[in-house]
Amino acid sequence: MNDMSDINGQAAKDDWVPTSCALCYGSCSILAHRVDDVVVKIEGNPDSAVGKGRLCGKGVSGIMTHYDPNRLTVPLRRTNPIKGLGEDPGWKEISWDEALEEVSAQLRRVRAEDPRKLVVQRTTTVTASRTPFLTFTAAFGTPNLSTAGGGLHCGNGAHLLSGLMHGSWSVVPDFQYCNYSIFFGASKGHAAGHASASNMGMAADARARGMKMVVVDPMCNFAAAKATEWVPLRVGTDAALALAMCHVMVHELGIYDSPYLQAKTNSPYLIGPDQRYVRDAASGKPQVWDLSVGAARPFSDAKAADMALTGDFEVNGVRCQPAFELLKRHLRKHTPEWGEEITTVPAADIRRIAGEFAHEARIGSTIVVEGVTLPYRPVAAIAFRGSQGHMNSVYNFFAIALLNQLVGAADVVGSCLGFNPASNGFEETGRLRYMPHADADGHMLTGTWMGYHLPYPIAEPRMPQKVGLQDLFVLGLISPFLDSDDNEAMWQKFELPYRPEVMINFGANMLMSIANKDSVARSLAKYKFMVSFDIFLTETTAFADIVLPDCGHLQTLDSRSNYPFIFSLPAGMGEWCWPIRQPVVPPGGGQRRFQDVLLELADRIGIRSDLNAAYNASMDLVAPYRLQGDHKYSFEEICDAELKSNFGPERGLDWFKEHGVLKWPKKPEEVYWRPFVDARVPIYWEFLLPVYEKIDAIAAPRGFKIPVEYYQPLPDFLPCLSHGCKVPGFDLYAFYYRDILHTNSFTMENPWLDEAAQLDPFSYTVAINADTGRKKGFTDGAWIWVENEKGRKVKGRVHLTQTIHPEGLGVAACAGHWGDGMPIAKGKGVFFNDLLELDWEHSSPINLNLDLCARVKVTLAEEGSR
Amino acid sequence: MNVRWDSVVDCVRQMEPEGQRVAREPPSGFATAGEPVIIKVWLYGTLASDRVERPIQLELGGDFTVAAVICELGRRLGEDFLRQVIDAEGRKFNQCLVFVDGVKVDANVMVRRGAASVHVEMILLPVIEGG
């Protein structure tokens, strides 16, 4: 053991502090080694189920982010009133009192005029920001809360489908028992993301055990590099591949789990010629054809085993079919040959992989886990950021989800699992219990969610009150219209009764994370006032009026670093785990925790009682821990209230600071909840039709046509705009992909991560297929221009590799900083998002997903000019 | 052996009743026999305004649900209030959270009868999450 005594022989103060990382939203549990109030090392916390003692390179590098001399330490006020790209803000240091007085004055004004004029935006990286900003926004009275690029690029499709089909925020293979996994544009367990470090260990164990891993991705990077098989496909065509596989399973192999489909999906529900459920006149319930009596009955009155899945029937003179019959017919055209044409994946491979998946599903088998007999389906098809980064993301995910549904591989042993959709809660207090359940139609409702825009039932479309228009486009989560080129036109068309004037930004570098910087800059410059909490001066803070120096993850407090459990607690058997985030070192200079600043702002503008009520509501605090009236609780007291409310009077903040985590064992009935809950998931989206009609009823009279093909009840392949490009020379599909070394645009400033990225041949380069590149006359390392159809260009060094589809052009991460506030990051890597257009035309008409692939041409930089 | 899904475990039907819809007009026979209940309603955030006292005091007779409380609030505060709380079909929005005596409840929950006063809190939380 090292002698940490100082030169006088006095023992150093030396301890390890349990807390949580925040270099990505995985929020893995860490131990920070503190010697004489200096953090000297960061490791994973082996006591926690979150990370299980493991930590990626980002996490251990957190020490360098914390001690970065470029960090903000005092509040700043711009003196140059002009906002724009390349404008020097003319920062002047001011006191906190001066800063907060000005911010308060703006907030008071806006609140008096119309609180909806306030837009609150936060980064998804810092999970500690979720509840404080949610509560402040609620207390203030604005509906406009957004999560910038981290939200817009990474979730509108994934979370909708994961919620609809699995009651959770995201999905992952049951690594402990899965034998065959297919990753569609996903890197769970191989790069960052939900429960990342825990998943890495479980995925490695699964591979060592023999789990076959097939990665479908235009890029062979972190996941595919570890895979048994990499299947390169044309960018944005995941739905076509998945549908072709479904065709094979249903029509060529005849392999599907009929009992599962009968009992756990809406497959037997009768559908009429109007594409709607044939409902029982008396009860209003969807009907099924009961084979035992040869008649239609409400679904709740028939045994699952007697429900017809196929056939033609007549009910009260109306011809109808079970939803599964319609799915079967729909799948007829999706042959492997059809799939090959669209995806470039050979038909023979499509058949082979579909067959492997279907056979390994072991339909009908069971297994005993901790004494409980459960269905056993050791296959899983998962999807995430890759599949969801397109206009067609909803159908990409729907088609992939069907693979699991057809074989019953959903939330049972070995299958595709949601992240903890069901919990019996903490036994000692009875708190934290939640369970998926059914509505009157038998459809599954989530037991819990991250927000209140539930994946189902779909909200009623109405004239929008939100700047993002999500109350009209009700399947959208995060919207491009906060910053799009056509947002004013959209707001006028849909009669938005106000305009955003003030922004509170927390840590989001939206100028880099959303789309091309020109469009975002134009939008940002329109705000009358912007205050930004950050730890560095970024490209976005250059548009702020006031910048507030925030504390980093080693300085902050958070009573719920991994809650809700559907977000970043590992799925599968193991332990429930509740870690916290606690300060290891104090604030430096004039840094203040954003949570404390929000409380002070609430007091200054007179909304403390509303804020207390919002904390009571969002944390579901119970007596005697509910916050009272307008009492000025500190953030420590609020955290203490939550912890005691959930875990009892003995386990408040002090207990958690000492112990770090609280754990209790998961039960098989919680992890593999599907057989125990009488609820059905939709393999036919009957609910989509009335949603379309209501949106169209609002949009059409205003001259705005919503394409109906995005709102059909069965998935299809809908091409992205890039697929339709016929301009000569624009022959590559550009996309960006997750870099395990980096999170969003934030970690390029970290010198350890930057050093590793410079050693890595992919991190800061433009990857093109080696054969494709050589045909274009490129040599490895040459500078090239990448240009989209609208003339937007980015420049970077090319890396020629066999590990990318011949038509692909891949850029890692969100790099290419140009600002001076992060000097390590400046000039490193390629700013891919500058190729992205930001308007309705490039957004999904169903879930507002921005189209993140672009058709590009590439030229040697010596030839190109700007 | 093909094992049926619904025979692997005893699956108890746990369908929850659909949240009670809120009538836009008060139900007839509103003040039924029984002692009136004093309800103090605290509205927060966007539901509150300078023109609305806090708490709002209501008096309702007989058995009634939270939906009835919302209906009565709508009668007092108008369409602007109701539009934020219920949809066109009369269903309470998910993001509108209601607490009765500190306990989160759905619209169909019965508020206890009696002369004791009841403390109701209502707040809208932001709808959207992402990432």
Quick recap of the structure?
The complex is a heterodimer of chains A (866) and B (131). Chain A is an alpha/beta fold.
- Mean pLDDT, all residues of chain B: 71
Q: Would you tell me the overall average pLDDT of chain A?
A: 95
Give the uncertain stretches of chain A in residue-range form: none
Class per helix and strand makeup of chain A: alpha/beta
Question: Mind sketching the topology for me?
Answer:
The complex is a heterodimer of chains A (866) and B (131).
Chain A: E1 14-20, E2 29-35, E3 38-44, H1 57-60, H2 62-66, E4 76-78, E5 91-93, H3 96-113, E6 118-122, H4 130-140, E7 145-146, H5 148-152, H6 158-166, E8 171-173, E9 180-184, H7 196-209, E10 212-216, E11 229-231, H8 238-253, H9 258-264, E12 270-271, E13 287-290, E14 295-298, E15 313-315, E16 318-322, H10 323-331, H11 336-343, H12 347-360, E17 366-369, E18 372-375, E19 379-383, H13 385-388, H14 393-407, E20 416-418, E21 437-438, E22 444-445, H15 487-493, E23 502-506, H16 510-513, H17 517-525, E24 529-534, E25 546-549, H18 565-568, E26 575-579, H19 594-605, H20 608-619, H21 635-647, H22 653-659, E27 661-665, H23 668-671, H24 688-699, E28 732-737, H25 751-759, E29 765-769, H26 770-775, E30 783-788, E31 793-801, E32 808-812, E33 854-860
Parallel strand pairs in A: 6-7, 6-23, 9-10, 9-19, 10-11, 23-24, 24-25, 28-32, 29-31
Antiparallel strand pairs in A: 1-2, 2-3, 4-5, 4-25, 8-20, 12-16, 13-14, 15-16, 17-18, 21-22, 26-27, 28-33, 29-32, 30-31, 30-33
Chain B: H1 5-8, E1 37-43, E2 56-60, E3 64-65, H2 66-77, H3 79-85, E4 96-100, E5 103-105, E6 110-111, E7 118-124
Helix pairs in contact in B: 2-3
Task: Tell me about this structure.
The complex is a heterodimer of chains A (866) and B (131). The mean pLDDT of chain A is 95. The longest helix of chain A has 18 residues, at 96-113. Chain A has 26 helices and 33 strands. With 866 residues, chain A is an alpha/beta fold. In chain A, the strands form 10 sheets. In chain A, strands 5-4-25-24-23-6-7 form a 7-stranded mixed β-sheet, with helices on one face. In chain A, strands 28-32-29-31-30-33 form a 6-stranded mixed barrel. A 4-stranded parallel β-sheet of chain A has the order 11-10-9-19. By secondary structure, chain B is of the alpha+beta class. Chain B has 3 helices and 7 strands. Chain B has helices at residues 5-8, 66-77, 79-85, and strands at residues 37-43, 56-60, 64-65, 96-100, 103-105, 110-111, 118-124. In chain B, a hairpin with a 2-residue loop joins strand 4 and strand 5 (103-105). Chains A and B meet through helix 4, strand 7, helix 5, helix 9 and strand 18 of A and helix 1 and strand 7 of B.
